[in-house]
Design goal:
With 366 residues, the chain is an alpha+beta fold. It is built from 15 helices and ten strands.
Length: 366
């Protein structure tokens, strides 16, 4: 069953998720919100609002990840030990696996963290909000590391595999057939440059807790009432898995680096200093944000493994940067200037992770 703007209203009415009065008084608004899936926003000013997610019919992988998200959200809402984590998640209102439908609570007025950051001048950068993201991720990792929860059979549906980008330089024959021209160009660069290929081979994956798996500012929603601290919600749990918490930390580091690079002009005639000087956000501002995130995480995670985690997170960040360059090339015929710049950044991080932690991200374990 495929829901669209014409059929979703009757589907929700049949399940008493909306009232017919919302249709009569015109308070119901339906819009497409497609990302990886077929998604519809159902906004109701006189009642609850919903996000309706369905996989694309031709994409079997999104069906698997959508079912994974539904099971994880349902488990967190039902288990009293996971109340703290459940507060960070979108509310699950209905899952119909046989019809491949997932209905989530829609937070009206919420903005993604990227939008929230973009609304503010560098002098008014919301470092406290970013520190809150560190605490939220630490809460997730700390909770599922608990002996009472770790290894529970109820969580057996979660995979624990290393991220696919770790072996992108060793693709199978089937994967090669589906590559765009830009992907092929990127693949040749990764295979040719020792810093990139050997850097990927050197990565060590430690399965330690439950991780979000796709941590970036677009997957964080910020809601704020007047006079109160912003509240954060982590969304899009399709890639939730058992894994290395350093991968989530690396996702945040990569996202701030991408925010900086996307905000600078990349015209080839510009010198590096001219590019950085013209960036929308000065790098020192983002360094302070990264420091706030890491402090929030480190002080909340509740263990003393900060040094080892950061040592894994920095090269993981380099892998995440390659992944972003790859994703930018999925629909392209030519490798973009941004993708090339990302590969160079990744090579630099792989070449000296300690220097990258210290000089680029201005981070230390303690």
């Amino acid at each position: 069953m495929t829901l669209d703007v014409d059929s979703v209203t009757s589907f929700l009415l049949e399940r008493s998720l909306i009232d017919s009065s919302a249709i009569v008084d015109g308070s119901l608004r339906l819009t497409s919100a497609a990302k990886r899936n077929r998604s519809l926003r159902v906004e109701c000013s006189s009642g609850d609002s919903f996000l309706v997610k369905q996989p694309e019919p031709s994409n079997e992988s999104t069906l698997l990840t959508l079912n994974r998200e539904a099971r994880f959200l349902a488990h967190c809402q039902a288990d009293r030990h996971l109340t703290g984590v459940a507060r960070l998640l979108p509310g699950l209102r209905l899952a119909v696996p046989e019809q491949q439908i997932l209905i989530l609570e829609l937070l009206l007025g919420a903005k993604t963290l990227r939008e929230h950051l973009g609304d503010r001048a560098p002098s008014d950068f919301p470092h406290r909000t970013v520190a809150g993201l560190g605490r939220a991720l630490a809460n997730l990792h700390r909770t599922f590391r608990s002996p009472d929860l770790n290894g529970r059979p109820q969580m057996g549906f979660l995979p624990a595999a290393r991220p696919w980008i770790f072996s992108i330089h060793r693709p199978g024959i089937g994967a090669l057939v589906r590559l765009t021209r830009a992907n092929r160009q990127l693949l040749r660069i990764v295979q040719r440059e020792p810093e990139l290929s050997e850097g990927l081979d050197s990565l060590i994956w430690k399965v330690d807790t439950v991780i979000h798996g796709d941590m970036r500012s677009d997957n964080v929603l910020v809601t704020a009432d007047a006079g109160s601290e912003p509240r954060l919600h982590l969304i899009d749990w399709e890639f939730v898995q058992s894994g290395d918490p350093a991968w989530d930390v690396a996702g945040v580091l990569q996202d701030f680096l991408l925010l900086w690079l996307r905000g600078m002009p990349l015209a080839p005639e510009l010198k590096p200093g001219e590019r950085t000087a013209a960036a929308d956000l000065p790098w020192p501002v983002l360094q302070r944000a990264i420091d706030a995130f890491w402090r929030g995480y480190r002080e909340s995670v509740g263990d003393n493994d900060h040094e080892a985690l950061l040592e894994r997170a920095i090269p993981f960040c380099a892998a995440r940067v390659i992944q972003t360059a790859w994703e930018l090339s999925n629909e392209a015929e030519r490798l973009s200037s941004l993708a090339v710049l990302l590969l160079q950044a990744s090579a630099n991080i792989f070449a000296d992770p300690q220097a990258a932690a210290r000089d680029l991200f201005s981070l230390s374990p303690g």
